[in-house]
Amino acid sequence: MRILIFGATSAIATEAARAWAERGESLFLVARDKKKLSALAADLKARGAAKAEALACAAEDAKAHASLPAKAAKALGGLDAALIAHGVLPDEERCRRDAAYALATLQVNFNSVVSVGTPLAAFFETQRSGVLGIISSVAGDRGRASNATYGAAKAGVSAWASGQRARLFKSGVAVVTLKPGFVDSPMTSHLKKGLLFASARKVGRGVVKAMDKRKGTAYLPGFWKPIMLAVIHMPAPLFKRLKF
Amino acid sequence: MTEYQSWGRYPRVGEGEQKALRLSWAHEIPRLRGLPGSLLPRGLGRSYGDSCLNPGGTLLDARGLDRFISFDEESGLLCCEAGASFEEILRVFVPKGWFLPTTPGTKFVTVGGAIANDVHGKNHHLSGSFGAHVRRFELLTSDGRRRVCSRAQNAALFHATIGGLGLTGLITWAEFPLMPIATSAMASENIKTRDLGEFFELSEASEADWPFIVSWVDMTARGRGLGRGLFNRGRWHGSSPSPLASAEPGGGPLQASPEPKLRFPFDLPSFALNPLSIRAFNALYYAKQLGRVKRGIAHYEPFFYPLDAILDWNRGYGKRGFIQWQCLVPMEGAKQSIRRILEAAASSGLGSPVSVMKTSGAMPAQGLLSFMRLRGITLALDFPMSGQPVLDLCQRLDALVRDAGGCVYPGKDARMSGESFKAFFPQWRRFASFVDPKLSSGFWRRVMGAAKES
């Protein structure tokens, strides 16, 4: 399989890439930081990736996104799947007093997903095959006080992915919405780790499995599915009084 | 942060007493000199005592530096970041036909930690400690320099860092060869021994033909049966003493370690492991094998990593934790010194549920502070930390080891005196000259405390 990964150096994407590399897949890695990319590419090659090509590109660099699918297909000799995995966890306190900051995080967590995803969706549609994995979050299922801004961006991502899935299934393209819960990663290193935290390795492998199976939506790990079902259906008078 | 304790969970670091800095990328490690207080590199925290703790200072958590850098499929040479774990190496490379050159009794250790403790395994008598296999590594010191160290380049620093308990600098990456295997199955024999003499005879007779040897000792036996136990020897299935026959088929598939499914869910109350229950466990474990010899072929996992099947097994020792005491005594006079040690331990009435003994090889140690530094016998005992009597017993055992001209393992220690440390490791002064002024540990402050005052 030939796979493009956007945000490849994030903890979850790294673990998914490792699982693919150990199967001998070919990978095209896109992320902001060149040094991180080359360290990751070396790791994946040592693990057995047939190819691990890297390209530095930022989430904000919308102009460069359009050519990514063609560049990956050229480097790998074709493209069968893509994973969009980048994101930032905003400081919600700051979002409450600094709208410019909040908008900047929306730019990364939502707008750039559309910016990267649109040309990929078009590429797979033309090709009439492909799997597009998009990392959303359980936070997008219902806005909570503690992460309204992040949740809003991820709700947008989930809705956009759902729409693309409905549009592209006719073309034989699967769009997989991946919804991790709390992940023990550098992005959450400042948080206290409770029972609900899963390792990036476990979630990364879950990503690979869900994309293999061309699932619609996958909660990672699976125990989040019943939890989020309860959260979604919780009556508003109760929900707004909960502190979480 | 309380989550950074040692494996023996004694001594404990209190909440807020110790900071931790998670390192994720080798090129983003901050300037060590710019960080407040003393620093200590930390891997998976399998050191039993305070050599992996830095109360009052900061731990440099290197688990995020876990990338492989290169692997040569022809020679098996692996270069990886220091936080890569043995577990991950096995998971990736066993299916491709490669195994670690040597491994301790748990795979949950990092490469950096394996170097810093110069860990040994069941093949020590033939293959030496882990440091013997390390070709080179990079060391980051607080002066901001990154030095590649090998036997040819920065050799003095290379030998100070192997077994150097993380005190000479932060290892960022290391290079060492993996060993080819044709199967992931081990052929092993468990032989019931009647006394200490039989252990020595079997060790001598097995060393040339069996690359992996370890013995469990029944700590309840005294008098004539002192030192009896189960002598365990193994080799890769299908391999044979003669290298010509090593291509013999019938190896079975190459399978990596299974994922552990069990986790010790809570701290066992401290009364659960008492001298009586430990006696019963020892007696049952010895009696469970009925015949003299038991042969078997099985996956390497239970052979190398019997305890890895249960995550957090150390919680079985309860909240107060436990002390592991491991010594090495020279082969000359070993029978007498091991006998004295076993007698002292057995007569104390403090049982040790897991007691392990094996011979060490004759190859020279690679580190200034390497534990396995001479040809002899190593014995490891576990004691639930029940208070002063345990500490007193270990003190008595230390004295016996000093008399014998041996040493006690710093990577497992939580209580040895500075005086004992200096007697065990006569090269300590030379080692101290390589210690990075910014780095320290609970262990190091404890054993050097007296020297600073005088």
Structure description:
The complex is a heterodimer of chains A (244) and B (454). Chain A contains 10 helices and 9 strands. Chain A has 244 residues and is α/β, with parallel strands linked by helices. In chain A, the strands form 2 sheets. Chain A has a 7-stranded parallel beta sheet with strand order 3-2-1-4-5-6-9, sandwiched between helices. A two-stranded parallel sheet of chain A has the order 7-8. In chain A, helix 7 links the parallel strand 5 and strand 6. In chain A, helix 1 packs across helix 8 and helix 6 packs parallel to helix 7. The radius of gyration of chain A is 17 Å and the shape is globular. The model of chain A has no long low-confidence stretch (mean pLDDT 95). Chain B has 12 helices and 20 strands. In chain B, the strands form 5 sheets. In chain B, strands 15-11-13-12-18-19-17-20 form an 8-stranded antiparallel beta sheet. In chain B, strands 4-5-9-7-8 form a 5-stranded antiparallel beta sheet, covered by helices on one side. In chain B, a hairpin with a 5-residue loop joins strand 7 and strand 8. In chain B, helix 8 packs antiparallel against helix 9 and helix 10 crosses helix 12. In chain B, 49% of the residues are buried. Chains A and B meet through helix 2 of A and strand 4 of B.
